[in-house]
Design goal:
167 residues; alpha+beta; 2 domains; 18% strand
C-alpha cells in the first residue's frame, strides 16, 4: 500500500472541487466514493514527490481504495478517506517553505543576469507557498531547461518530506 497525501483548505474543503471532506477525528474520516476519472472526478491525491505541485493550507494523509490510476503528478482512485492531518504542515512550516523558495529563486537568479527581473523583491512578504515553489522552478527552467525545472521540484519535494518527517 502506498502512502499518499491530500492538500485541503483550512476548512477541509477540496482545493479545486470545494468538496467538504469528512475529517478524521479519533480515527480516519468516512470513506468518499466517486467514479475515478482523472481531472474530472474520483479521489485525487499526491505522492511525496508530487507535494510541491499541490501545496495548500492543510495536509492530510489519505488512504485510497480500488483501482489506482497513477499519473505524472497525482494518483486517482474511486474511493478514499482521510487518515490523519499532518500537523507538521502548519503556518510556521508554510512560511519556512515560502522563505526557502524565495531564497532559492534569488540564488538561481544571481547566476544569470538576464533573469534579474524574475527575482522576488526583498520586501515580498510571504506569497502563497505554491506560487513561490512554481516561481523558483520556472527560474530554474529558464536557466537549464525542463530537466532543471523537474530537479527544482524534486528539491522542493525533498525539503517537504524531510521537514514534515514523511520519509
Amino acid at each position: 500500500m502506498m502512502t499518499v497525501y491530500k492538500f485541503l483548505t483550512a476548512e477541509g474543503l477540496g482545493m479545486f472541487s470545494g468538496f467538504a471532506w469528512p475529517l478524521p477525528g479519533s480515527g480516519p474520516g468516512a470513506w468518499v466514493e466517486a467514479e475515478a476519472d482523472a481531472c474530472r472526478s474520483g479521489v485525487h491525491a499526491c505522492r511525496r514527490k508530487d507535494l510541491p505541485y499541490w501545496v495548500g493550507p492543510a495536509l492530510y494523509e489519505i488512504e485510497l481504495d480500488g483501482t489506482l490510476d497513477t499519473l505524472a503528478l497525482k494518483v486517482v482512485a474511486p474511493r478514499g478517506r482521510l487518515v490523519r492531518r499532518v500537523e507538521a504542515w502548519n503556518s510556521a512550516t508554510r512560511d519556512e517553505y515560502s522563505r526557502m523558495c524565495v531564497a532559492r529563486a534569488r540564488e538561481l537568479v544571481d547566476t544569470v543576469s538576464d533573469l534579474a527581473d524574475w527575482a522576488p523583491p526583498p520586501s515580498i512578504g510571504l506569497w502563497e507557498a505554491a506560487r513561490l515553489g512554481f516561481v523558483a522552478a520556472r527560474i530554474a527552467e529558464q536557466i537549464g531547461g525542463i530537466d532543471a525545472y523537474l530537479e527544482e521540484r524534486r528539491r522542493q519535494s525533498d525539503w517537504l518530506v524531510e521537514q514534515l518527517a514523511l520519509g
